[in-house]
Amino acid sequence: MEVVGVIKKIEAYWDKRSDTFDADHDTEDVKAWMDSLANLLGPETNRNVLDLGTGTGFLANMTANLGYSTIGIDISKEMMNLAVKHAKNLRSDAIFMEGSVLSLPFMDNTIDFIINARLIWTLIEPDVAIKEWLRILKPGGKIMCFNRMKEGVGLNIGKVNIYEDEEVDKQLAIKEARMEELRDLLERNGLSDVKIQKIPGLTRPGYDYDPWFVLMGTKVLTECSLIS
């Protein structure tokens, strides 16, 4: 199956899941998330944030309310309809737009932070995706991929036939990737200072889930960027 066909099927799946997505994932301590994001992004809120696979705007609305200029992008229109509703309720000025993480509608070297949550395991053509993210990232900018992982192991999705289509599911190249494989994905595509950091306390007590980790890397500063 060609990539375009795979993306269409994935889009249809998340459109269908949109009505129940928030209820299924209502386990998060938003205050803890806000504190963690503020710490990771730093105090200079004049920087911009791109939230990939924004879904219902969970991260994008938080970073916007922290003061960062934020855009959320997703292939699912139905998910983003909910993101816009949440933004109004939260008085967030995040902007939402349709797009694929494999081909982003932004110029080179224009984004300070690329963030995402629960996206990394869904990637098809992960090397293509990371190269595309790196293209639009400013020198010195950072990529941060949040996901639950099994400590000391890596992604632990444990789902079979996720998209109810074997041809689509076979495209999920890294859904069970180990931590060292995830670090290698970023390093081989040109990111530096790559690390995986555990972020405790993001899930409200009483929920038995793998802990949250963030996979991070930085775009190397070039001599030209240092001079400018």
Verbal overview:
Pfam families: Methyltransf_11. This is Menaquinone biosynthesis methyltransferase. Keywords: Methyltransferase, Transferase. One of its GO terms (molecular function) is S-adenosylmethionine-dependent methyltransferase activity. Residues 50-145 form the Methyltransferase type domain. Strand 4 (111-117), helix 5 and strand 5 (137-148) form a beta-alpha-beta unit. The chain has 8 helices and 7 strands; from the N terminus they run ααβαβαββαβααββα. The longest helix is centred in the N-terminal third of the chain and has 22 residues, at 3-24. Strands 3-2-1-4-5-7-6 form a 7-stranded mixed beta sheet, with helices on both faces. The chain starts with a helix and ends with a helix. With 228 residues, the chain is an alpha/beta fold. The model has no long low-confidence stretch (mean pLDDT 94). The chain has a single domain, classed as Rossmann fold (3-Layer(aba) Sandwich), CATH 3.40.50.150. The chain has helices at 3-24, 30-41, 58-65, 77-90, 126-136, 166-169, 179-188, 223-227; strands at 48-52, 69-74, 95-98, 111-117, 137-148, 191-198, 212-219. It is globular and about 45 Å long.
Number of domains: 1
Q: How many strands appear in the DSSP assignment?
A: 7
Quaternary: single chain
Report the C-alpha radius of gyration, rounded. 17 Å
Q: Quote the distance from N terminus to C terminus.
A: 45 Å
Mean pLDDT: 94
| Helix and strand composition category | alpha/beta
In CATH terms, what is the fold-level topology?
Rossmann fold
Order of helices and strands: HHEHEHEEHEHHEEH
Shape: globular
Give the strand order of the largest sheet, numbering strands 1, 2, ... along the chain. Answer: 3-2-1-4-5-7-6
* CATH structural class: Alpha Beta
Instruction: Please state roughly what percent of the residues sit in beta strands, choosing from under 5%, 5-15%, 15-25%, 25-35%, 35-45% or over 45%.
Output: 15-25%
**Could you give me the name of the CATH homologous superfamily?**
Vaccinia Virus protein VP39
User: Which architecture per CATH?
Assistant: 3-Layer(aba) Sandwich
Domain Methyltransferase type: 50-145
GO biological process, one term: methylation
Pfam family, one: Methyltransf_11
Protein name: Menaquinone biosynthesis methyltransferase
